[in-house]
Design brief:
532 residues; 23 helices; disordered N terminus
Amino acid sequence: MTKPSIGKRAEAAVGEATGDVSGRAASGVLWLTVQKWAVRLLGFVTIAVLTRLLSPADFGTVAAASTVLPFFFLLADLGFAAYIVQVDKSDQRMLSTAFWFSLGAGGVLCATLFGLAPVLAVVFHDDGVRPVLQALSLWVVLTAAGSVPMALLRRGMRFGVLAGQGAAAAGVAQVVAMIMAFSGFGVWALVAQSLVAPAITTVLAWITSRWRPTFAFSRAEFRVMGAFGGQVLGVEFVAMLRAWGEAAVISAVLGIGAFGYMTIAQRLVQVVQDLTGSAIVPVTQVAFAKIRDDEERLLAAYLRALRLTYFALSLPLTMLAVAAPLVVPIVFGRGWDQSYPVAQILALAGILSVGAWLDNGLFYGVGRPGTWFVYALVIDGITFGTTAALSRLGLVVIAWGFLGVCVVATVTRWFLTARVLGARARVVAGPFVFVAVAVVGSAAAGWGVRAATVALPSWAALLLIGCAVLAVHLLATRLLAPRVLPDALALLGRSRIGARIRGLSRMRTARGGSWKNRIRSAASPAGEGEHT
């Protein structure tokens, strides 16, 4: 059964959303985006320095060891943090139960990981993994100790506090890594960076959350949280298992150096994603949980968030897909040629994966992690199988295989998400239409400019390519999705920072049109009411 056209009740509901939830969500997106920019700008400097001081094998060793860390943390957390964020009401007994379990399990798993390090070194065919992994086992305890305070900050939508903590922790960790690299510590500079950041973040979370546990532990609360968290754990376990398996396959078949090249390509794509749209995901997960009882309001909010996320991420990722051979040498230095084509392909895959971020938050926010678990199990299984089957053909072929899986996953999510929202699949797929046209058109323009500027210096060619991609992308967006830019400005205007900027505070009404038109726009198959 499909959803009827959104009417007056949704108009009033969405209008109400401009209040507390919408304003705090807008502020959260803005604060976390600022944090990402601050961290990544310093991170660019840090990794540009480290890639000139450390070898691909050093990066590959730490990357291989790091793939197993989130798995052990997941066992310690058991998905309780995700439950705390979305539950209707929380109390001291529930929170204390979650904390003591996480802390105790974190200690046990830290010791277990320390003991398993020699075995995992054999799996990765790299003796250097053993001491690195033994040191990094402390990461499990450090992260588990701060899971409940950080979940409380997210639940309260205190994203400005979280942004400040993350920026401070990352900044200190990156400075420590550079000092150690210049001092000749080699791979241990990367290890220190991985440990300093969670240590600082955990301490700051305890200070700012102002929550302290009691010695209470409720078996009843544990069972309730475990029922929800077990499904979340399943999703994350499958993802970590896939990452671990891919790391093992690539390093065993192609060598640890090849895995280092893959890691650099992945990091470059992740940097672009973090700087542009990743802040939307943790914010919308909380926002979806707060409005999940109103299906019409939820549908309108989801479609708007999807369009904005596609717009925010597709532009820089398209630029990267075109200009990676110019960007990688500038950022990482020479000697990373094998990362160029991999980064280009992964950038295209990253555009397709944008919807997965938002859909993950949607399914968790509405309390349906089980459906997402089944989806993750199938798609991650296909992804790993594809990597294993193509591993002997090289990194580029592996990247193309991943892109193919992303296409299948995107289409699958349209139907799953439509069922949750009570809408047609074509409504959910609508926002993808404009981004597909914008990406193809802007990429073609970028490739044309790149072919015409081969004789120019890299920085000049990069500037011209960026202008071409930007111009065509904005033009396509304006023609096919004219509400995207006004919605982005209206979102900024509803934030606390935007409300202080003259002109932006009026965008919520002056540029947004009537709420009735906005709601029709959100529900139209093309994603824009003006074209229906």
